[in-house]
Amino acid sequence: MTAVPPRKPAEHVERVLCVLAHPDDVDFGSAGTVATWTAAGTEVVYCIVTDGDAGGFDETPRDRMGPLRREEQRAAAAAVGVTDVRFLGYPDGRLELTLDLRRDISRVIRQVRPQRVLTSSPERWYERVGASHPDHMTVGESTLRAVYPDARNPFAFPELLADEGLEAWTVEEVWLGASPRADHAVDVTDVVELKFAALKSHVTQVSHIHDLESFVTGWMAQTARRFGLPDGRLAEAFHVVHTA
After folding, report:
1. How many domains does the chain have?
2. Which of 15, 22, 138, 204 is most enclosed, with most CB atoms within 10 A?
3. Domain interval for residue 93
4. Which InterPro entries match (predicted)?
């Protein structure tokens, strides 16, 4: 039997929805990739599940941290060409796999109608356990369940159609970040300064990291080498799942 070559991601899509747990998640793992998409004319929308109110490294009062991180995420999004940033307002650090979360993500999918969704891997990566925050895995699994079967099934969460007029929508690709089985790399060398600008917008989270650029550059250079890119190139990696 002849082996079937793996399917490649679409070269261009009209709309992408990025669903991540916290402000800054999309920027650490995917801001360079997002910058390449927006530069190519793709509309990108962010859906951030929490306000990141359990993050930070200083004495900022807890009641101020969530609003601060929302503003930081909006500034970071603007740095890579994203103007539509939505927050679901779930509690940081306490996410659970619930029907409510699946419904809320399904709602945004039906509103945005993306051909591609980017989210975090639901798998724990034991060699990089820091990438496997429980909130990240919960959002990844919830998003995959929202993509299939919820958002495409007109009979799932019928209130979305009956009360809100949101028709079912089928997402064709899901890109999973921080995955132990990544199979696709995006060369982000030419947009890396935009990624750094996005990351530096998260003042409450990165101002204590004095070698941020060196740390992130080393990480992306290692990814590029792993995927066979030429020396000096930088990359972000994903596990691409075809869902249609």
Report:
1. 1
2. 22
3. 15-242
4. GlcNAc_PI_deacetylase-related (IPR003737), LmbE-like_dom_sf (IPR024078)
3-class SS of residue 187 = strand
Query: Is residue 205 a part of any domain in this protein?
Result: yes
| Distance in angstroms (rounded) separating the CA atoms of residues 232 and 221 | 7
Alpha-carbon distance values, 12 to 116, 147, 201, 223 (Å): 10, 19, 28, 23
User: For the chain, how big is the Rg over CA atoms in Å?
Assistant: 18
Are residues 194 and 35 in contact, defined by beta-carbon separation less than 8 angstroms? yes
For tokens 């935009």, what's the residue? 194
User: How far apart are alpha carbons 195 and 34 in whole angstroms?
Assistant: 9
Q: Please, are residues 55 and 28 in contact by the beta-carbon 8 Å criterion?
A: no
DSSP letter for 85, please.
Answer: E
Summarised one tens digit per residue, pLDDT across range 114-164 is 999 999 999 998 888 878 899 999 999 999 999 999 999 999 999 999 999
Residue type, 22: H
| Encoded tokens for 117 | 């969704």
Q: Does 7 map to a domain?
A: no
CA gap 164, 107 in Å, rounded: 9
Inter-residue contact 144 to 242 (CB < 8 Å): no
Phi, psi of 239 (to 5 degrees): -100, 115
- Count how many residues are written for the chain: 244
DSSP alpha helix (H) spans, the chain:
25-39, 62-79, 99-112, 134-145, 158-162, 192-200, 203-206, 212-226
DSSP string, 40-80: TT-EEEEEEEE--TT--SS---HHHHHHHHHHHHHHHHHHT
User: Average pLDDT of 36-53?
Assistant: 97
Give the model's pLDDT for residue 184: 98
Is 2 domain-assigned? no
List all residues 6 or more positions away from 207 whose beta carbon is below 8 Å from its beta carbon: 57
